[in-house]
Amino acid sequence: MWKSGIKWMLLIMGTMIGAGYASGRELWQFFGEESGLAILLFTIIFSICCFVIMKISYEEKTEHFYPVLVKLIGGKLSKIYDVIIIFYLFTTTVVMIAGGGATIEMFHIPFWFGILVFSLLLILLFIWDLRGMLSMNAVLIPLLIIGLIGTLFTFIFKHGGDFGFHHLSEQANWPSAFTFTALNVLPLIAVIAAIGKEVKHKGEVWIASIGSGLLLGSISFIYNQSLIQVASEIILYEIPLFAILKDYPYSMIVFMSILLWAAIFTTAASGMLGLTSRFREKLKLPTWIVVSMIVLLMIPLTNFGFSTLVAILYPLYGLINLYLLVAVLLYPIANRYKW
């Protein structure tokens, strides 16, 4: 039970710790100063969301997200959200593939070659289906977490061990807890619903949801407090993490760049898991072939200016997700006699 619970916890963490999170961009956009309470609220809300989605998936023995949507928001709205989630997963995975190519460019490797390598690795990963995804998470996610925590703690103690607790007196930013969780609720439903059939015990649901919430909340707090200390310099950096790393040796910057690439890859893999699990049933083809077909559709789109697309789509997704977040949080209350 514990082993499986940790396995699902790493899958959830892999969905959350994408390029936006690992680079510090997402955290700084939503949190920043006066956010101690916001991060605490996020930890609680996130754990509840994971628990509700995973419990429905476990009870319904789901293989993809549609049955979970029906349970949460009913049949009619589910049809609309079905299309939205497919579009969301598709566009964000395209952005991740483009990001994977752009990150490799730092090492003077052509963008198109980076895209090709990234795409081939995605296809190879799914030859082993869900097992491949879980094995990758078992290696990459602990590395990502250790790398991030190690870097942040070194930075904090380098600056006199100040965790920035003096910033905690003002807590005006608490509503960010809801918008930040809402941003991530669509991929959470897509990925957790894909494993419903594999969850064997309710204890796994508790371990995965509480474990991922506490771990993510703790990292978010430490990361945010570190970013506050370099707040005046963040504007100079595309990736806020590099403001923290500015006095570190070049080898450390290279190591963290590789970790960022890994974070991009785990997010792309999570998006692909959500997409393939939705279509596999209809196509009756091996997962890696479905992935190959989707990747071939995505590659030409990586050449477009996605910063514009992201600027339009993400706020829109945020609004759409807020409704879904409310539905998830109210589900245990609406079904209290069954729960």
From TrEMBL:
Residues that span the membrane, as ranges: 38-58, 79-103, 109-127, 139-157, 177-196, 205-223, 250-273, 285-306, 312-334
InterPro entries named in the record: YkvI-like
Sorted UniProt keywords: Membrane, Transmembrane, Transmembrane helix
Superkingdom per UniProt: Bacteria
Protein name: Membrane protein YkvI
Organism: Bacillus salitolerans
Lineage, opening ranks: Bacteria, Bacillati, Bacillota, Bacilli, Bacillales
